[in-house]
Design a protein that fits this description.
The protein is of the alpha+beta class. It has three domains: 2-88, no CATH class; 101-182, Split barrel-like, CATH 3.20.180; 198-311, no CATH class. It has helices at residues 101-111, 113-123, 167-182, 198-213, 224-228, 235-268, 278-290, 293-311, and strands spanning 2-5, 10-14, 34-41, 44-50, 52-54, 63-65, 80-88, 135-139, 143-148, 151-156. Helix 1 packs across helix 2, helix 2 (113-123) crosses helix 3 and helix 6 packs antiparallel against helix 7 (278-290). The radius of gyration is 30 Å and the shape is elongated. Pfam families: DUF2470 (PF10615). It comes from Penicillium chermesinum. The chain crosses the membrane at residues 200-220, 240-266. Residues 101-174 form the DUF2470 domain.
Length: 312
């Protein structure tokens, strides 16, 4: 939104998502440039930062605000953060409030470390462990210089940006391209979710079977398993398990090993779990015991994460 007040020779340049934002009046500061951040809400505008003389809706008197430029972030659906730049037309050079190189670098390092790690893995074939702690060192219109574990890497930006105003969109595009090249999902699995509900029953039965059938002799009277796990009360069932043990245990191990491999390729890897990491061991160990129930829990986690992203 751009508005020009010819009488006062004042230009209001709105950058962002402001909708139907009207200022009652703006008093010019003699020195000209007065960058101000407004947080727009229905029927109300609140001064949030910047410096200069000004008056907005909801204020009955002129007030002077001194502060540093900072973007507002809000999760309220009715609020729209809108950076504004106020300047007089007497100035032939106007300082832009759009994204600067330093701001982009600081923002990426502070809030988008995961994306930087993805860039190195996708475009420089750096391993997940070596990409840990990636930080932007420099940003050009045609490349991104990232340092990780003391090594500098160059990530190309193709085609080159015209200016740094394109940076946000291009970083988002690089993030999506990285995910596609690596076969990853937007969702990242960051924790192990233990069995709950009927999964506890599945986990318990499978673990009981592993313990009971690990040695065939454990199913005979006098063994610890036979005496303490209830088989002595069900001798016929014990005899049945003893008979099928040579087939049951190898089959169960083979099926669950296959499920562990499948879990990595269709769940853990797409959701960003590094091979042989602590999280990988937790999920793989759980899958080896209980099997398909681990797929269900990860699937539920991913669905909830996607719903959360849509709400935001």
């Amino acid at each position: 939104m751009f508005e020009t007040n010819l009488e006062s020779q004042l230009v209001v340049a709105s950058i962002g998502r402001a909708q139907d934002l009207k200022l009652d009046s703006i008093l010019k500061e003699p020195k000209g440039i007065a960058p101000i951040i407004f947080e727009y809400r229905p029927k109300r505008v609140r001064w949030a930062g910047g410096h200069g003389w000004g008056r907005g809706p909801g204020f009955g008197a002129d007030r002077r605000f001194i502060g540093t430029f900072s973007l507002l972030h809000t999760q309220r659906s009715e609020a729209i953060a809108a950076p504004l730049l106020l300047y007089t037309s007497h100035w032939h050079l106007v300082r832009s409030m759009t994204m600067s190189k330093d701001f982009i670098i600081k923002h990426m390092n502070a809030d988008h470390g995961d994306s930087l790690k993805l860039f190195l893995e996708a475009f420089n074939e750096v391993s997940a462990s070596n990409a840990q702690g990636a930080q932007v060192e420099d940003l050009g219109l045609d490349n991104l210089i990232i340092r990780a574990k003391g090594i500098r890497y160059c990530v190309p930006i193709d085609p080159p940006m015209k200016d740094y105003n394109e940076a946000r969109a291009r970083m988002v595009a690089l993030h999506k391209e990285s995910l596609q090249k690596l076969g990853r999902s937007e969702v990242t699995l960051t924790k192990y979710i233990p069995p709950h509900g009927y999964h506890i029953v599945i986990f318990g039965l499978c673990l009981f079977t592993y313990i009971s059938c690990f040695q065939r002799s454990s199913l005979l009277p006098g063994s610890w398993v036979y005496e303490h796990l209830g088989y002595k009360y069900l001798p016929k069932f014990a005899n049945f398990v003893y008979a099928v043990q040579p087939i049951l245990l190898p089959s169960m191990v083979a099926v669950h090993l296959f499920e562990c491999a499948l879990l990595y390729f269709i769940r853990l890897k797409p959701y960003g779990v590094p091979l042989f990491s602590g999280l990988w061991f937790a999920w793989t160990g759980s899958c080896f015991i209980e099997g398909f129930a681990t797929f269900q829990r990860i699937g539920q986690f991913a669905e909830q994460a996607k719903k959360g992203e849509k709400k935001e």
